[in-house]
Specification:
By secondary structure, this protein is mainly alpha-helical. Helices cover about 60% and strands about 0% of the residues. It contains ten helices and two strands. A two-stranded antiparallel ribbon has the order 1-2. Strand 1 and strand 2 form a beta hairpin. Helix 5 runs antiparallel to helix 6, helix 5 runs parallel beside helix 7 and helix 5 packs antiparallel against helix 8. The protein is globular.
């Protein structure tokens, strides 16, 4: 990735007093012609645009009013289109976190095996925000973890004398593109499996972004303890993330699928569809270690 001189005047105004200024290349007709030979304005003539005359002109006022109206309607249309594709209220839900939640959620991502209650809490059929429910997904941790991963990658490349803006930009763009491709693949799988849930793209983005926490721990351990420490941390964080996704993801409802994989459940979902949902969940969980390794192995040597 590549990141993105001028000339000065030949002399100051005081130096140019000794000789007359050269005539302009084009005649200035904005203020009319003077009686000076050649049709050029007389020195010191005011040729500036008369703003007061424009404001006092009814046609100018009408044009300004019409332009302001168009700008207002255009702004309103942009806001409507933005809310059409991105719900700001839903996005705020995924960033409703506090310090206690972030600390507990990071511990849950690294040590999920001791956690007992994996049910998402609801209040009047509305899920509680992350700061009130540890099991609720959020986008704050994935966003901050992605930024930290990019900074850590730059530090690791700098320690190895391999840092350059192009390499760092390629590392960041690759990590972002892979997550987007993963989310698109999951959306396609959900559509083909006809999963009925309140899942949104933000949910998938949150669960896919939690892998950055394991990537950070793996790279840090590799920098401190070498390649052996990296592979140990990679194995631990990968297995923890797989367990976390299999237990907590509300998208595929793994726990109910485990008990109803041999036949239709109470909602009348056919067994083949249940198997497809289960395979999709297992595939999404198994894909996480591959992504963590692919995005971090070149940072530890």
């Amino acid at each position: 990735m590549a990141y993105h001189s001028g000339y000065g005047a030949h002399g100051s105004k005081h130096r140019a007093r000794a000789a007359p200024d050269p005539p302009p290349l084009f005649d200035d007709t904005s203020g009319g012609y003077s009686s000076q030979p050649g049709g050029y304005p007389a020195p010191g003539a005011d040729v500036a645009f008369n703003v007061n005359h424009l404001i006092g002109d009814p046609m100018a006022n009408m044009a300004m009013t019409y332009g302001s109206s168009i700008a207002f309607h255009g702004k309103d249309m942009v806001h409507k289109e933005l809310h059409r594709f991105v719900s700001v209220n839903k996005l705020k839900y995924f960033f409703a976190v506090d310090t206690a939640y972030v600390a507990k959620k990071l511990g849950l991502l690294v040590f999920p095996y001791t956690h007992q209650n994996w049910e998402v809490q609801y209040s009047r059929d509305v899920p509680l925000p992350p700061r009130q429910d540890l099991n609720a997904p959020d986008l704050y941790i994935p966003t901050m973890a992605f930024i930290t991963y990019v900074l850590l990658a730059g530090m690791a490349l700098g320690i190895q004398k391999r840092f350059s803006p192009e390499v760092l930009g390629l590392c960041a763009s690759t990590a972002l593109v892979w997550v987007v491709m993963e989310v698109l693949a999951l959306l396609l799988g959900v559509y083909l499996a006809t999963v009925r849930s309140d899942l949104s793209t933000f949910h998938l983005l949150a669960y896919s972004g939690y892998k950055y926490v394991g990537m950070i721990l793996s790279v840090l351990t590799g920098l401190l303890f070498g390649s052996d420490g990296y592979y140990v941390a990679l194995a631990w964080t990968s297995s923890a993330l797989m367990y976390f996704i299999l237990q907590l993801s509300p998208l595929f409802q793994v726990r109910s699928l485990r008990t109803a994989a041999l036949g239709p459940d109470s909602m009348g979902v056919p067994a083949p569809r249940q198997h497809l949902q289960l395979y999709l969940t297992l595939g999404a969980a198994a894909f996480q270690p591959l992504m963590i390794y692919w995005l971090t192995f070149h940072l530890v040597r």
